């Protein structure tokens, strides 16, 4: 059973709001800049994808963790755009986050603040209370695939009849806890993010939130709200291989794509867009390309592939949700955003990557893939019924 | 209507012992696992601490540094498989699901990591320690050690995490996303958790004086409960022992484990402490043990504690509910 998408919201390095996000993404802007909030001394790179302070400051609330603020603004936007009145409805909230508010551990002495920082569930609880949602409230943490799985799980709750509608939110904030660790793991490049490039050297991290309002087909039809598109299928799995190293063969990613397409009930030939996870790391990108070839077969070389991390940076738990928003808006406008940073494509990543400028491309189904530390994989299929 | 979900193995780690059997036996006998915390320096805190263990007895692969939360999860998984009489989940690797609930994850390790890097600088960050500090570290370790390559989620929804893990396990089976699911919750006691707890904590050294929810404060605990869930047909086909049935259901059951003051209300955590994200998972394990033993675990009667609250009572109940989850056993029990 498919689920309707009737609203989206975004906070990212490209700005606040889904319109700003999409306009800047499609026109080839980069949100990667030298870190402003932190001293980058000791990190592999001073570049990151911080939410622009001039746009965020008017929306920030004193004492509120940034991750909660980003989630709040993106979720409120998705809800507002959907025009859904939540009174009397079971509206679930599913938050996906990699680190939650854990960066507060960096500064907090032992005490209640420390415990609150480690309790990611408190973010969703506060968000649900503020938005007046009366449905299941779940927080999941599947590393950098969290945002994609949040969307899939929200769809599951509706499919199962546990909720009439659901807000799926992926959110994370930059801080020295995550940046120092990801730097010492050498996932951060000393250059810039170059997805699928022969000379890629790693990724650059970012922050923000993406949100999608999902509802049952019955709910959308009853209130005559035209869906933006539909969640057709999703899947989540684990490489069961290594805590930090990717599965170089891409078997886990291939499986998750296969399962998502299977749930959607569509043939690979129907896909008109693949949003790749494409972190620009040495081992991930060819593994992802191999996974796409393994599952899609010959069409893998023809379906246009985009990789937005060259523009947004890798927004960790928010990445999958922001990329789902990208797929929704690409379907709406029949336009695929360009992949920044790619200069010389790696022959081991033999895909039709959209580069240079946005590409007009009629399509009615899209695939979005995410992966994360600990072997996490997730895939989402969006499109017309 | 979705097919029934069978609980075919229980791995329990708590202050009542390592394994489902000591957990069930102590629960039935009303034995408390609460005791003064080993880390107490001044006034003794009453907590439910897991007894010392030799981790090597439970690991399937050599490990370097592990956070205590990860240790408890790995022990619970091994105990679950032993209880089920299996060496691996009974499904193809890509059909083996895992849902782990945890409120605080590897907070102690994350805190230590941050303290070190803050003091010495990012160049002195330790990759191994960082990778062992995530909320999803316990789940990832379980997947690697037990080749769980299917449906996979860490839930970190506060104290609800363990209960929600079962809900998602049931959902994953109902939606055909997995054929066997290891589900449950885990959280560990630490100096960081105790220092950060923002409510009164139970003190003293008399576990029988402790009443959950009373003004004297909360007895924190630690532990893990991981249960093996399968569809009825699959469990039956392989001749598995079904310890109980699990479903998501808001309808009343014969008795319930919660704090709503209903006449037949139990608070099994009176014996092992409030275990954060493991609470709901341990509560479900307690329901299974109680139903199978035909007893009600320690009762709490709200404002007027029953005289017999430490005495388990005989029961003919075949179903019990913990919030949105119902556990039932066949009448023959």
Could you write a compact summary of the structure shown?
By secondary structure, chain A is of the alpha/beta class. Chain A contains twelve helices and 16 strands. In chain A, 67% of the residues are buried.
Provide an overview of this structure:
The complex is a heterodimer of chains A (385) and B (333). Helix content of chain A is 32%, strand content 21%. Chain A is α/β, with parallel strands linked by helices. Chain A has a single domain (3-383), classed as Peroxisomal Thiolase, Chain A, domain 1 (3-Layer(aba) Sandwich). Chain B has a single domain (5-109, 135-328), classed as Thiolase/Chalcone synthase (Peroxisomal Thiolase, Chain A, domain 1), CATH 3.40.47.10. Chain B has helices spanning 20-29, 68-84, 107-120, 127-131, 137-146, 161-174, 191-196, 232-237, 279-293, and strands at residues 5-14, 17-18, 35-36, 46-47, 96-101, 152-155, 180-187, 223-231, 244-248, 255-256, 295-296, 313-314, 319-322, 325-328. In chain B, strands 1, 2, 5, 6, 7, 8, 9, 10, 13 and 14 form a 10-stranded mixed β-sheet that branches. In chain B, strands 3-4 form a two-stranded antiparallel sheet. Chain B is globular and about 60 Å long. Residues 259-263 and 300-309 of chain B have low confidence and may be disordered. At the A-B interface, α4, α5, β6, α6 and α7 of A face α3, α4, α5, β6 and α6 of B.
């Amino acid at each position: 059973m498919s689920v309707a998408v009737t609203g989206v919201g975004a906070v990212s390095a490209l700005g606040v709001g889904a319109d700003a996000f999409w306009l800047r993404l499609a026109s080839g802007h980069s949100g990667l800049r030298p870190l402003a909030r932190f001293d980058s001394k000791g990190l592999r790179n001073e570049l990151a994808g911080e939410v622009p302070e001039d746009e965020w400051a008017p929306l920030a609330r004193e004492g509120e963790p940034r991750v909660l603020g980003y989630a709040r603004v993106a979720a409120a936007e998705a809800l507002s755009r959907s025009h859904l009145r939540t009174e009397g409805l079971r509206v679930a909230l599913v938050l996906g986050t990699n680190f939650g508010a854990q960066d507060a551990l960096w500064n907090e002495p032992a005490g209640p603040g420390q415990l609150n920082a480690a309790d990611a569930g408190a973010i969703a609880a506060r968000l649900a209370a503020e938005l007046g949602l009366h449905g299941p409230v779940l927080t999941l943490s599947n590393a950098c695939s969290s945002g994609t799985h949040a969307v899939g799980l929200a769809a599951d709750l509706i499919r199962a009849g546990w909720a009439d509608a659901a807000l799926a939110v992926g959110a994370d904030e930059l801080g020295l806890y995550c940046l120092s660790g990801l730097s010492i793991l050498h996932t951060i490049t000393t250059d810039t993010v170059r997805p699928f490039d022969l000379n890629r050297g790693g990724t650059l991290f970012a922050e923000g939130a993406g949100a999608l309002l999902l509802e049952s087909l019955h709910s959308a039809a009853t209130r005559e709200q035209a869906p933006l598109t539909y969640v057709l299928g999703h899947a989540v799995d684990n490489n069961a291989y290594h805590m930090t190293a990717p599965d170089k063969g891409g078997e886990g990613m291939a499986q998750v794509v296969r399962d998502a397409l299977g749930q959607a009930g569509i043939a690979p030939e129907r896909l008109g867009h693949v949003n790749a996870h494409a972190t620009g790391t040495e081992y991930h990108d060819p593994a992802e390309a191999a996974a796409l070839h393994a599952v899609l077969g010959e069409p893998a070389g023809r379906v246009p592939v985009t990789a937005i991390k060259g523009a947004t940076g890798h927004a960790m738990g928010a990445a999958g949700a922001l990329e789902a928003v990208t797929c929704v808006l690409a379907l709406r406008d029949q336009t695929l955003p360009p992949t920044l940073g790619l200069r010389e494509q790696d022959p081991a990543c033999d895909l039709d990557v959209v580069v240079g400028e946005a590409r007009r491309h009629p399509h009615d189904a899209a695939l979005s893939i995410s992966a994360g530390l600990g072997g996490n994989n997730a895939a989402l299929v969006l499109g017309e019924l | 209507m979705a097919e029934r979900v069978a609980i075919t193995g229980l791995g329990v780690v708590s202050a009542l012992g390592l394994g489902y059997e000591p957990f069930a036996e102590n629960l039935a006998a009303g034995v408390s696992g609460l005791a003064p915390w080993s880390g107490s320096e001044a006034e003794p805190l009453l907590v439910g601490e897991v007894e010392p263990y030799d981790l090597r007895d439970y690991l399937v692969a050599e490990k370097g540094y592990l956070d205590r939360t990860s240790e408890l999860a790995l022990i619970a998984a091994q105990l679950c498989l032993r209880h089920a009489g299996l060496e691996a989940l009974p499904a193809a690797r890509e059909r083996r699901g895992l849902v782990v609930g945890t409120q605080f994850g590897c907070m102690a390790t994350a805190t230590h990591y941050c303290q070190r890097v803050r003091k010495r600088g990012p160049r002195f960050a330790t990759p191994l320690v960082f990778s062992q500090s995530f909320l999803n570290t316990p789940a990832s370790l379980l997947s690697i050690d037990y080749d769980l390559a299917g449906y996979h989620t860490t839930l970190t929804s506060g104290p609800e995490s363990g209960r929600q893990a079962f809900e998602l396990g049931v959902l994953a089976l109902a939606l055909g996303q997995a054929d066997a699911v290891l589900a449950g919750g885990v959280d560990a006691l630490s100096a960081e958790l105790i220092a950060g707890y923002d409510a009164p904590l139970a003190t003293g050294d008399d576990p029988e004086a402790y009443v959950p929810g009373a003004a004297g404060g909360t007895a924190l605990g630690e532990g893990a409960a991981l249960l093996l869930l399968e569809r009825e047909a699959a469990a039956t086909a392989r001749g598995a022992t079904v310890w109980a049935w699990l479903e998501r259901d808001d309808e009343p059951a014969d008795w319930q484990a919660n704090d709503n003051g209903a006449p037949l209300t139990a608070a099994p955590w009176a014996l092992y402490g409030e275990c954060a994200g493991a609470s709901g998972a341990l509560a479900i394990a307690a329901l299974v043990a109680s139903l199978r033993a035909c007893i009600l675990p320690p009762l709490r009667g709200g404002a007027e504690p029953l005289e017999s609250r430490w005495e388990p009572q005989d029961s003919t109940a075949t179903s019990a509910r913990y919030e949105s989850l119902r556990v039932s056993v066949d009448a023959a029990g």
